[in-house]
Amino acid sequence: MEKIEMTTPLVEMDGDEMTRVLWKDIKDLLIHPFVELKTEYYDLGLPHRDETNDQVTIDSANATKKYGVAVKCATITPNAQRMTEYNLHEMWKSPNGTIRAMLDGTVFRAPILVSGVKPTVRTWQAPITIARHAYGDVYRNVEIDVPGTGKAELVFTGEDGQEIRQTIFNFKGPGILQGVHNLDASISSFAHACFQYALSVKQDLWFSTKDTISKTYDHTFKDIFQEIYDSTYKAQFETAGIEYFYTLIDDAVARVVRSKGGFIWACKNYDGDVMSDMIATAFGSLAMMTSVLVSPDGKFEYEAAHGTVTRHYYRYLKGEETSTNPVATIFAWSGALRKRGEMDNLPDLMAFADKLEKATIDTIEAGVMTKDLAIMWEGSECTAVNSRAFLEAIATRLA
Ligand code: NAP
Ligand code: MG
Question: How do the pLDDT tens digits run along the chain, 399 residues long?
Fold first, then answer.
């Protein structure tokens, strides 16, 4: 069989623990036999990040800017325990945070549906994608533990000396205070990423905030989205037959639960944090959630939404059999290959991505799956297999 050729390399970001093990198996069993794979390889595994003083993460983000499409394996974000476990020089920052900041990107998360795993919400028939703004608000807050009686003020001092001052509250006793901010530029990038992504997948875009209560802060989000929609995307949305729809966050929650799915829901940073876990769980499993980072200038980085599955890795190291679900990581590869095919005009590569996804879903729907899915399975008979056997079953079907 002739292998499918590529023209531009994919930026490949390897990672840690169980997902690193799956990474190699996915390539060996599902990609290499069919595609003459071209990648520029960056090892983002924690030992190599430590050796390079995290330069490798920066290099991989720059390569993504250069080539336009990356595929990333889950990586460890170090904490105190990892410092000892890996004997690290420094508590390196989250690679995802670094890459997201460098690409100024927005993260889109979507569940992968299979017929035997029913969403908790009965009406949902198609995936709901969450787009989470990745800058500011409560994640960049400043807080004060108010000790007692006194006046709290909000003050802005302009570079030109202009001062804007407002009383927040006259405290009569102890309390708490919080200052948050966001930037027009970041909100605009978020809006562009959402509109572009909606066009690329041809789905409606919903956006929600609490602008009735937050008449300046949240209202600015609403206004920026509306201005950008009207000036840049309205005509393209109409041609594509999709809609942009703004509503209040509480109304959005109610509508999402009543909906059939099949749209993108753009959320402010905190709302997106909370809602993406709700959506993932209600659709079935974190192991079936894909994630793609999209920059406002159209660069894409694909990954699984879950982490390195540490608990399984420790069992694997002891020589025990593991049944870790590789589906979200396979879909990261298929997503990246399809996007590369689209950008380079390689219909065979795009078709391969479709076939890889179909072979994966068909394998599960034929009753062969990892343990996490078998536990939830409501279809006819199923067999729980280990990760390797699952990948082999997909490979056979694909061939
Ligand atoms: P996790 O790796 O997502 O795993 C949490 C639990 O979810 C697992 O123990 C497992 O449950 C289940 N699970 C997740 N993915 C699964 C899969 N593919 N197949 C089967 N079960 C799966 O989260 P974590 O344990 O909190 O984090 C581990 C490491 O990942 C941390 O070092 C963290 O920094 C990193 N992390 C990285 C990313 C990223 O790179 N994007 C994201 C999140 C976390 P059972 O044990 O019950 O089977
Ligand atoms: Mg969270």
Answer: 789 999 999 999 999 999 999 999 999 999 999 999 999 999 999 999 999 999 999 999 999 999 999 999 999 999 999 999 999 999 999 899 899 888 888 999 999 999 898 888 999 999 999 999 988 898 888 999 999 999 999 999 999 999 999 999 999 999 999 999 999 999 999 999 999 999 988 999 999 999 999 999 999 999 999 999 999 999 999 999 999 999 999 999 999 999 999 999 999 999 998 898 889 889 888 889 999 999 888 899 999 999 999 999 999 999 999 999 999 999 999 999 999 999 999 999 999 999 999 999 999 999 999 999 999 898 888 999 999 999 999 999 999
Domain boundaries, the chain: 1-114+299-399, 118-141+180-283, 142-179
310 lines ligand 1 (CB under 6 A): yes
Which residue out of 22, 44, 306 has the highest number of ligand 1 atoms within 8 Å of its CB and is therefore the one to mutate? 306
Other beta carbons less than 10 A from residue 244's beta carbon: 21
Distance 313 CA to ligand 1 centre (A): 10
* CATH number of 1-114+299-399, picked from 3.40.718.10, 3.30.70.1560, 3.40.50.300, 3.20.20.140: 3.40.718.10
306 lines ligand 1 (CB under 6 A): yes
Nearest CA-CA partner of 335 in 293, 285, 397: 293
Buried b (16+ CB within 10 A) or exposed e, 292-321: bbbbbeebbbbbbbbbbbeebbebbeeeee
Q: Which CATH superfamily is domain 118-141+180-283 in?
A: Isopropylmalate Dehydrogenase (3.40.718.10)
Task: Output the CA 293–ligand 2 centroid distance in Å.
Answer: 16
Q: Ligand 1 in contact with 109 (CB < 6 A)?
A: no
Global pTM reads 0.88
Ligand 1 touching residue 285 (CB < 6 A): no
Centre of ligand 2 to C-alpha 273, Å, is 5
Residues 116, 378: Cα–Cα separation, whole Å? 5
Q: Ligand 2 centroid vs 270 CA: distance in angstroms?
A: 9
**CB half-sphere exposure, 283, CA atoms < 13 A:** 29
What is the rounded distance in angstroms from the CA atom of residue 387 to the CA atom of residue 399?
18
